[in-house]
């Protein structure tokens, strides 16, 4: 996954954000979005090959893959509200979130560009 993606509003981030892991018995990958206020929003999860997307983001968020190994995130029809840090987590009996200093990743959305940062689970 690239550390940063810059796109114009209306464009899409099509499978450019990838999460991968090799932890045995962790069959679920969860996707989160963290906005500039550092609020985490669950986007959905991939349980094995079964996708569940949260209702409020279903029109613009999708992902695919295999929860045992990897998932690719797509964000369609970008708006300034999509400027965020995107996290993934692998789950078995507990959540595992990556930690990163993301202060430099946020940029105020404009009418022309959206700045997306992502961090790969490790």
Automatic annotation (TrEMBL):
Occurrences of domain Ig-like (ranges): 1-107
Record-level GO cellular component terms: plasma membrane
GO terms classed as biological process: cell surface receptor signaling pathway; immune system process
PROSITE patterns: IG_LIKE
A UniProt-annotated Pfam family: V-set
Gene3D superfamilies associated with the record: Immunoglobulins (2.60.40.10)
Keyword Signal belongs to the record: yes
Keywords: Immunity, Signal
Keyword Signal tagged: yes
PANTHER family cross-referenced by the UniProt entry: IMMUNOGLOBULIN V-SET DOMAIN-CONTAINING PROTEIN, T-CELL RECEPTOR BETA CHAIN
Entry protein name: Ig-like domain-containing protein
Organism of derivation: Poecilia latipinna (sailfin molly)
Organism classification: Eukaryota, Metazoa, Chordata, Craniata, Vertebrata
């Amino acid at each position: 996954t690239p550390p940063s993606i810059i796109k114009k509003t209306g464009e899409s981030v099509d499978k450019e954000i990838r999460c991968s892991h090799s932890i045995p018995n962790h069959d679920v990958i969860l996707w989160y979005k963290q906005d500039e206020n550092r609020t985490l929003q669950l986007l959905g999860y991939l349980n094995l090959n079964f996708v569940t997307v949260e209702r409020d983001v279903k029109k613009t968020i999708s992902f695919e893959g295999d929860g045992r190994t990897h998932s690719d995130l797509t964000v369609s029809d970008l708006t300034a509200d999509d400027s965020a840090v995107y996290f993934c987590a692998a789950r078995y009996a507990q959540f595992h979130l990556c930690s990163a200093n993301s202060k430099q990743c946020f940029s105020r959305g404009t009418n022309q560009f959206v700045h997306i940062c992502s961090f790969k689970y490790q």
